[in-house]
Design goal:
Layout lengths: L1 H14 L5 E3 L17 H12 L7 E11 L7 E6 L3 H17 L12 E7 L7 H10 L6 E4 L1 E10 L2 E11 L12
C-alpha cells in the first residue's frame, strides 16, 4: 500500500504545484472506522473495555481499490484509496463497533461511511479543479495489495505541527475466519 501511495504522490506532484499535498507517512496509513474526538480518561477506559469483548465479525481478506477525493464536489481536501475486496466486511465491522459504542454512551454515527485509506490532505486551494484531479487519479492503477484483516485497533491521535501521529491504545482479534487454514495471499 505504501508503494502505491508513493507512486500516486509522485504522479500528482508532477501535475500539482510542489507541496500542495501533505502526504501521510507510510507508517501512519490506516483505515478509520470511527473518530471519537476528545474523550476523558474515564471514557477512554470504557472504550478500551468495548475492545476487550470478543468480536463477532470474522477476519477477512481485503484489497485496495481506486483513488478518489473528498469532498465529492468543490475544492479537493483529501486524496484517498478505496477498498475493493472486503468492503462489506469492513462495513459490518464498523456497524459492530458503532453498536458497542452506543451501549456505553456514544452517539450513533450519522455520516455515511466510506471505506477509505487517506493518502494525503490538500494544504491549500489548488490550481487544478476537482474534476481535473479526479482524471489524474483515474489514470492511477494501485499496486495489487491483498491482506488479512484480523484485528481491530483503537488509536490515540496526537496532533503536532508535523501532523497527526497515532499510538495504539488497545487491539483485539476478530473472530476466526472461515478462510483460516486455507492458503493466504
Amino acid at each position: 500500500m505504501a508503494a502505491s501511495a508513493q507512486a500516486l504522490g509522485a504522479q500528482l506532484d508532477r501535475v500539482l504545484a510542489s507541496s500542495v499535498v501533505r502526504w501521510v507517512a507510510p507508517a501512519q496509513l490506516h483505515f478509520t472506522l470511527r473518530f471519537l474526538g476528545e474523550v476523558s480518561a474515564e471514557q477512554a477506559e470504557v472504550v478500551r473495555g468495548v475492545f476487550r469483548e470478543p468480536w463477532g465479525t470474522a477476519a477477512f481478506t481485503a484489497s485496495i481499490g481506486d483513488a478518489d477525493l473528498f469532498p465529492r464536489s468543490g475544492a479537493p481536501r483529501v486524496i484517498w484509496l478505496g477498498m475493493d475486496e472486503g468492503r462489506e466486511q469492513m462495513v459490518a465491522l464498523k456497524t459492530e463497533l458503532d453498536d458497542r459504542l452506543v451501549t456505553v454512551g456514544f452517539e450513533p454515527e450519522t455520516r455515511l461511511f466510506q471505506t477509505h485509506l487517506t493518502l494525503g490532505r490538500v494544504k491549500r486551494r489548488v490550481a487544478v479543479q476537482g474534476a481535473d484531479l479526479r482524471m489524474v487519479l483515474s489514470e492511477h492503477r494501485p499496486e495489487v495489495a491483498r491482506w488479512m484483516v484480523d484485528r481491530i485497533t483503537l488509536f490515540e491521535s496526537r496532533l503536532s505541527s508535523r501532523g497527526s501521529t497515532y499510538h495504539v491504545v488497545q487491539s483485539a482479534m476478530l473472530a476466526p475466519s472461515p478462510e483460516v487454514g486455507q492458503e493466504q495471499p
